[in-house]
Known about the structure:
4-stranded mixed beta sheet; methionine biosynthesis; Rossmann fold; 7-stranded mixed beta sheet; 2 domains
Amino acid sequence: MRDRxxxxxxxxxxxxxxxxxxxxxxRVLPFDETWLRYDSARGVADAIRTMVVRGAPAxxxxxxxxxxxxxxxxxxxxxDWRAALAADITLLAASRPTAVNxxxxxxxxxxxxxxxxxxxxxxxxxEAEAVSIHESDREANLTMAQLGVELIRKRxxxxxxxxxxxxxxxxxxxxxxxxxxxxxxxYLEGLVEQVYADETRPWLQGSRLTAWELANxxxxxxLNADSAAAHIMRTKGVTWVIVGADRITANGDVxxxxxxxxxxxxxxxxxxxxxxxxxxxxIDMSLENGExxxxxxxxGSELLEVAGKRVGADVRAFNPVFDVTPADLIDAIVTEKGxxxxxxxxxxxxxxxxxxxH
Length: 358
Ligand code: MRU
């Protein structure tokens, strides 16, 4: 299956070439396909904050390349370049709070740098580390897609009806996608009759990005309001809700795009299986449970305005952009290290001791 998946890799959102970082501007998709060029860590921090690049793994990869850009600038400026780069890393770490992949990638870059003694090798070593973070995410996507497909195949009655939330595809990762990677692979295996994509208010990752990615590949997708999901589960024969994650804690609780928690509650009520697909770089074993995850709140204008035009009354808006799904509502967490069914602390611990499968 791996070769078929590789052949199906068409869209990408992150490109490292000519010693610069190019990001596909996700704020203007699906109408404009605009690539923006970055040559400073500060610029990339801004791109993450303003969501030019988004999705937990993609944010981590972009931040890793940003460290290379920062190192080049700081080395050229001379002086205490390591201290100046540490300030760049602090700036990158402040760009978004919830997706742990950002901090995971920055830590990897920081630790790699600490092991380089001489300055002459530093840039090449950092670049190799960033490329390796990118490549291993791509590989992880392929492994997770195959593991997720096997879970879908085991359920009775193929082809099946799937529901997904937010965007977890090529745009959100270094490769094929996490949850959307499983859905794309399942389609290639003839297991998918229909995909329902939640529009994902307020930023519309579902209607602008997921629907675009699936339609580009001819996968039968229909868009629905987030509030239609329970009705769809009851009336349309949904067998799986499949989502990604921004941070998974040591007990298996999952932070993901706002609206994921209510999907899990509804899935349990309707006997629909609930699958979370995320690389191990999304797992934060330093946090005991989901209550400890910082939840990003974004500007109220994302709710009160549509395409820059005010549509809401003159009130304040509360706009948390992630929520936490408790582990006991989750049927399976799929990672590149393997699958954890009915997650709990002991099973998460065992998973993290394993090596990658491929
Ligand atoms: O605010 P976003 O668009 O960065 O949120 C993205 C999500 O919540 C995704 O589901 C998650 O990052 C997984 S992406 C593979």
